Amino acid sequence: MNPRLSLPLDIPRRELLTRAAEVIAEAWQSFDAARASEPDISAALRDLAQTGLHDSPMPALQALDQAKGYLDTSLSQARPRYFAFIGSSGLEVGVLADALASTFDVNLATTARSADLIEAQALRFAAELIDYPFGAGAFTSGGMVSNLTALMAAREFALPNSRNTGLNGRAAALYCSSEAHYSVRRAAEVLGIGANFVRSIEIDQHHRMDTKALTHAIEADLKANITPIAIVATAGTTLTGAVDSILSLSSIAKQFGIWLHIDGAYGLPGAAASSTKHLFAGLEHANSLSMDAHKWLYLPKACSLVLVKDKHALSRAFSHNESYMLHDQDQPLNPVDSTLEYSRPFRALKLWMALRVHGATQYREAIERNIGQAKLCAELVKAEPELELLLEPQLSTVPFRHVPKHLEQNETALNAHNLELVKKMQLDGRVYISSAVVDGKACLRPCFVNFRTSEDDVRVLIDVTKELAAKM
Ligand SMILES: Cc1ncc(COP(=O)(O)O)c(C=O)c1O
Fold this sequence. Notes:
Elements: H1 13-32, H2 43-48, H3 60-72, H4 92-104, H5 114-130, E1 136-140, H6 143-158, H7 162-165, E2 172-177, H8 182-190, E3 198-201, H9 211-223, E4 227-234, H10 246-256, E5 259-263, E6 288-292, E7 304-308, H11 313-318, H12 348-382, E8 387-389, E9 400-402, H13 411-428, E10 435-438, E11 441-444, H14 455-470
Parallel strand pairs: 2-3, 2-4, 4-5, 5-6
Antiparallel strand pairs: 1-7, 6-7, 8-9, 10-11
Bound molecules: pyridoxal-5'-phosphate.
């Protein structure tokens, strides 16, 4: 207890820290194996969440205990059988790095001395991992912000000075596959391009952007005096994990002189694995890319990267001079001159520590293991007469559905049946899965991006699916 502090603790710091470390260690242990079901939220916790602000202090250990109670009954993506959406898995060193970064509360808005060195090195590590010749980059809060950041640079490239003038009556467009993430649309909304000018290009049978349709769309826009801002290739779509043909898209980008951005928020770590590296051929031609370290690089949220090839591309879009953010001669650019955010936590530390502790080889193997789990899942699905694989996995996403004999001919009923099955699985709690609609078919859509998941967990997923489907 330190009487000099205006916000004193009621117990010695070390005591609180020791208990917090125990809570974390217990959580990590509980993530080693899946639990039988999700525990109910007690009436006491529900009641407590309804109370108003209290004036007097509460013992810190009691508050910690309450927080533990709420965390224990929250859905944690760190658990090995969390297969829904695209999870993150709270890698241990990432958690510790977060605690350290928060402790020192470094702010990367302006120069932060050593932290700047680590951020620069972590960006280099990430670029090396996927073999991208980057010129500049930044850590951001997620794929949404990374895409927006890159597309701001693209807008400035296509329409120089538009950051000052706005579109000024000019029409502009973005091109992406019809299964690109919504963040591309949101970026168009924010950048003044307008969501109606996102050309949603049809996909081929592998769910990749159709390159002929893309060329036609660009030609039509050019004819109509609409300025192409960027082609957004998705390297690992959220829905199916499809990787657009980067090489083909890069030659179209080159032919028309258009910026090529790769949204690899989910899938880009696949470029580090030998079995899927070929899918990312042409990566080096991209002007920019996004990659979420809080997805398939296993780190706790929030941690994403945007990398650009031209080292001035970000500063062209973001640099500015304010009387409270001066430039000095030694440091012509502040971090805020290269990214969207002002106050920015030291997110780089967790990627830096994770890559230091585990090294590139362990990382490549972990990604490869998830790819193997997706293949296993697909094989198990194919071996079951009542399960249908909707798409061979390109990365680590496996959309499949249950097709009972009596519903075989009725797509509407099949859709309702599969949506209901997912709900039942979520209630059951042994695995956590989300539903999706692929080619009009409602399905189960597991995504394997967790370093804790084992092949046994994949088998349990299929067993639980069969067991609960049989009871319907
Ligand atoms: C391909 C893709 N892009 C962008 C995003 C948005 O990422 P975030 O949720 O980190 O903002 C996602 C999220 O799943 C994604 O899958």
